[in-house]
From TrEMBL:
This is Programmed cell death protein 5. The gene is Dmoj\GI12672. Residues 112-121 have a biased composition (Basic and acidic residues). Belongs to the PDCD5 family. Pfam families: dsDNA_bind (PF01984). InterPro entries: PDCD5-like, PDCD5-like_sf. GO terms for molecular function: DNA binding. Residues 24-35 have a biased composition (Low complexity).
Length: 131
């Protein structure tokens, strides 16, 4: 980037930051409307693509692992937009797609660390040597 480009970017950024408060609220309202419209579109696509059992399983997955459910939703929507989904997905197809999502997700194994400081926990007196 040249200095002129940097100056133009700085000027644009300063104009955005110094914009009126009403303009900011309008932008925020527009963003909320756009997000609402995207959510509505996502739900309509999922209701067209998934059968009742698959929707129930997806809702259960959302409660337990929201990041995995989000990844699954995105994958199914992409597949539907590309025309890879024929008819409604049943529970068995849901499980197979979920397994492919599991293969793509980074695996993080929980680690358990044991504290082996037994001296602090020991309730026996050290003076019992002679008994």
């Amino acid at each position: 980037m040249s200095d002129g480009d940097l100056d133009a970017l700085r000027a644009q950024r300063m104009a955005e930051l110094s914009g009126g408060g009403g303009n900011n609220a309008e932008k925020q309202q527009a963003q909320q409307e756009q997000m609402r419209a995207q959510e509505e579109m996502k739900h309509s696509i999922l209701s067209q693509v998934l059968d009742q059992q698959a929707r129930a399983r997806l809702n259960t997955l959302k409660v337990s692992k929201p990041d995995k459910a989000q990844m699954f939703e995105n994958m199914v929507i992409r597949m539907a937009q590309m025309g890879q989904v024929r008819g409604k997905l049943d529970d068995a197809q849901f499980v197979s797609i979920l397994e492919s999502v599991n293969a793509q997700m980074p695996q993080s194994k929980p680690t358990v660390k044991y504290d082996r400081r037994r001296a602090a926990i020991d309730s026996d007196d050290d003076e019992d040597y002679g008994c």
